[in-house]
From TrEMBL:
It comes from Pseudoxanthomonas dokdonensis. This is EBNA-1 nuclear protein. Residues 55-140 form the D-glutamate N-acetyltransferase-like N-terminal domain. Coiled coil: none annotated. Transmembrane segments: none annotated. Residues 146-339 form the D-glutamate N-acetyltransferase-like C-terminal domain.
Length: 350
């Protein structure tokens, strides 16, 4: 429990209701891993997604109907969501004209990029003239304190990974949904822009000043009833040359009872960092438990989540079984469900 001298931690405030349905903007990217915001909304909030819009040269699709902003507006769209999460969260010059096209079509723009959409003069001036909104969701709330490290009540599960963009959010969402279906008191806690767009609240961990990042993780998952679970979306990787800091802050601040390690079979190097090979699942488990013990002495690994979307069902089932035997723990693809996922749930809940 929190010591009596410390006030209860507030949770991040909910976002204002975002205008929807959305047109998902995929820019001109050619790497599917950078389209995780579009994919996440498509898979977890499909009722809010009306179509997709790409720049010339873009090769990634979310599988939704292709539409111009004018066509989307005619079909009832109210906003364009930037569905890209590229390195550094930048908005390149090549996107400005398509985004202006969306404003002129009558759509608001919702962005989860590091660069504030309203800081771009041409977009801000057009939005003001047209009466449109520019909405940034990657903005930390005020009042984040330095972490206390004090233990607190409730149970917590944190998804962690061997790299970025390989299933931490999907695993957390699937686990939270499965917990709830089994009558467990549970909250999904979003820690990145896509999760925040899906859940309507959360903490954009990678936008928090580093000295306050572990405190932001404490705020994201405050003290709760002893039988309550927070399932927390992980970020980055403890081995990542650029993003290890946010992963460690989440681990220390969330104080998880359980970690689930996420991995994509066949990925050989860090996304966008070909000189850095992926760590093994075993090394990732070992480092997570070693560092996690600093703020949660009883931390344990509940199992492994694999993204087997590139495999046929028989090959995926064989891989999950062989990896479970090799690692000595539950190994599942939460998006496939089945007995392997049931075993992962049992091991997480203890």
């Amino acid at each position: 429990m929190l010591p009596s001298s410390l006030p209860p931690l507030p949770t991040p405030p909910a976002l204002p209701l975002l205008p929807s349905p959305h047109l998902l903007f995929l820019g001109d990217i050619s790497e599917p891993g950078y389209a995780k915001t579009a994919f996440g909304l498509r898979d977890w909030a499909p009722q809010r997604c009306i179509g997709e819009f790409r720049c010339a040269g873009g090769t990634v699709s979310a599988g939704l109907p292709a539409m111009t902003p004018q066509q989307a507006a005619a079909r009832g769209a109210r906003s364009l969501v930037i569905g890209v999460a590229n390195a550094g969260g930048v908005i390149p010059e090549s996107w400005i004209e398509p985004l202006l096209q969306a404003l002129h079509a009558g759509l608001d723009i919702i962005s989860g990029m590091h660069v504030r959409i309203a800081s771009i003069a041409r977009l801000r001036e057009a939005a003001d003239a047209l009466g449109r909104q520019l909405i940034d969701v990657r903005v930390p709330p005020p009042g984040i304190a330095v972490a206390t490290g004090a233990p607190r009540s409730g149970k917590r599960l944190l998804t962690m990974g061997t790299d970025c963009a390989l299933g931490k959010k999907y695993t957390a969402l699937a686990l939270a949904r499965a917990f709830a279906e089994r009558g467990v008191d549970v909250d999904f806690r979003a820690s990145g822009q896509t999760g925040i767009l899906i859940a309507g609240r959360g903490m954009p961990m990678d936008a928090v000043v580093s000295d306050f990042a572990a405190g932001a993780a404490e705020m994201l998952s405050p003290a709760a009833a002893e039988d309550h679970w927070d399932v927390i979306e992980g970020q980055g990787s403890l081995f990542h040359p650029a993003y290890a800091g946010v992963a460690l802050a989440l681990l220390h601040g969330s104080q998880p009872d359980v970690v689930v390690i996420c991995h994509q079979p066949g990925r050989r190097h860090m996304l966008g960092y070909p000189a850095y090979p992926l760590p093994s699942i075993e090394d990732t488990i070992a480092l997570a438990l070693q560092l996690g013990q600093r703020t949660r002495a009883g931390i344990r690994c509940g199992g492994v989540s694999l993204d087997t979307s590139q495999l046929d069902p028989a090959s995926a089932a064989a891989l999950l079984d062989s990896e479970s035997q090799r690692l000595g723990c539950a190994v599942a693809d939460p998006m496939r469900g089945g007995p392997a996922f049931e075993q992962l749930l049992r091991q997480c809940l203890g």
